[in-house]
């Protein structure tokens, strides 16, 4: 086989990564689908509509031959029926941009945005007979744009080195607030050994739940997050009540009101585990392309924040070690200087003592040698003076061996001295 040049391989990898990013953006921003409906008469009866129109308002309301106000009563209080009346009366078209509308009522109501046009329909005489409604739903685009704006704000936080807990908590709240459907976000951080996961951020999960999973092991079958961390790949659990990965945590999830959990590992650039990014849901759910794209985008953001945090921690630790080493070196240099000064003082004292001894010895040379022992004290001693002793102060005397030995035992700093031989040598060779 022919080896692929390195620069071509890198280019290929970049192309694949770029394509994946574009697919994520397309999934988040969606594809525009035009909606159309033909309304007739002053009551605005729905004569016909395309499938996109009924998909937007709800398939359960997909019928024709009824007034739009009857089909969608929620429009009356939002000004849209009044706009239809105005276009029918004046024959002037109306165009709206990013118009907000609440579709449906009660728990099934949803916020939507549309770019739309109301165009009058006329007969051969030019009389207005109805209205054509043409529009494009921009809800997904609107939500995705808001998400991406929040995403840019998170990147700015990371760039200015905001605390990790602040970044992760803000990221979780951003996704929860802006996602089209209710979602509860959790980020767990891996221990340095990659064997356990610690609480990072989960602003909407109950405290008892966060405390219970703080420190869970990474491993096959340990919930969604433990398994995703172990496999280093996403784990999608669409129904916690029946999934075998959640056997040990099923009761805990039920207490917390959790029915689905999609977890994605957060990996560093070198492939090491940083943590997990999880999206919980109150009802069993299968992820859509938008959900998966959202997960990839924000899992990457979390990886950037965590890796940046680790770099700053390592930098701080290295600076602390360097300071400690510098402090120890300073102490060692100071101690070495003190020892050197002390040694110099001792050397000076020794030199001074040697000088005094030399001076004393020189003075003793001129002193006549006595015949009798000078160490007998008041009683005197008639023994022959054989040995000379002296001290460091320059005092000296001659004595017999017995008195010299007594003096050496009882008088400090006394040593044997002789002009002819070194003191001890003279004594040994007497």
Automatic annotation (TrEMBL):
Gene3D superfamilies: 3.30.450.40, PAS domain (3.30.450.20)
Coiled coil is among the record's keywords: yes
Top-rank taxon, per record: Bacteria
Record keywords, A-Z: Coiled coil
Listed name of the protein: GAF domain-containing protein
Domain GAF: 150-316
Keyword Nucleus: no
Entries under SMART domains matching the protein: GAF
Coiled coil regions in record: 326-360
